[in-house]
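Reopening this one. Same input as before:
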Amino acid sequence: MNHLTINLEALLHNYLAIEALMRKHGSRWTMVTKVLCGNRPVLQALAAMGMRAAGDSRLTNLKAVKRIASATECWYLRVPGPSVIDQVAQLSDVSLNSEIKTISALNESAGRMGRKHRVIIMIELGDLREGILPGSLINFYQSVFNLPHIEVLGIGANLGCLAGVAPNIDQFMQLILYRELLELKFERRLPLVSAGSSSSLPLLIEGSVPKGINHFRIGEALFLGTDLIHGGTLAGFRNDVFLLNTEIAELKEKSLQPPTDATSIAPFATPQGNDAQPGQRGWRALVGVGQLDTDITGLAPLNPDYEIAGASSDITVVNLGDHDDGLKVGDSIQFRLNYAALLRLMNCRYITKQLAPSVDEFRERMKEEGRIQNGVVITDGPEARE
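Same output, byte for byte:
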């Protein structure tokens, strides 16, 4: 059966690695849970680990977080549109914003609920996604500070999310200077500068991130351990939290090239790099996962000698090489995933998700090993540093 396994020991390892980095830097972080698509068992496991703040761009997912861990601080990570203002004010404690009309509407909604809503004002620093232009800072903040039901928690930026340009020290220093300017101008404290993400962790590990950057929004590094700057896996992290297991439905020796050079009418692009010669043959396995389930280009066979030849909506063809590697129909081929592939798999109702161990077994194991106190995993003892 095709299924996605979720290794809670590996997830805990990455969680503790991030906690250690945050303690060393003197920072807070929000766990970006978007890729989980509201999966309850994984959220329950994260709650057992001590999840304090969770960020998502889907309100239904934040609702799932609140049901599982009501004390968790919820961050709404997508700039709110007018149609969801009341839900954002109700379901999230903090939201990222760049439009004064939206913040004014949040102020009115929070007022009707008898509460305050906290906001991070996003500044455009080159990623060309959300954010106000730096030249508008003073007037923008003047308006926001006068809203009685809004608390400005700080400033932030998205770096490396859309344009794909790696964050740099100059961008970090700009944000720190903007915070100093605003605090001096308005004589109000802005506690957080939220500019760190998974793409910032290589710089944090190197000790290059300025101390003024004191809040990180981290998802990919937690779930995949990815080093987004240098490639591969971050030092001290694991890349085996998620593993896709696919069942072989056919296994045969076939030609590795189509018989003609006719124009392709295939609905999906074929991966590049097939340098097989005309008439060359090899062993091919068909597995029951396709483009409907995930981003096939984001799959990497666990066996480096295997190569994905292509995929239709529900079948992927894997070139095994000159022999069948001892495999047979019904055996499994396993794949590691990039973020895009994982996101689509987690959102796919056709793929079973299996935790190893189960959440209950995980809790019991942690208790037996003395790694859980007061219901959450210890993050600052010797066990956390192993």
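So the earlier flakiness isn't reproducible anymore. For the record, The chain has two domains: 8-224, 242-256+279-350.
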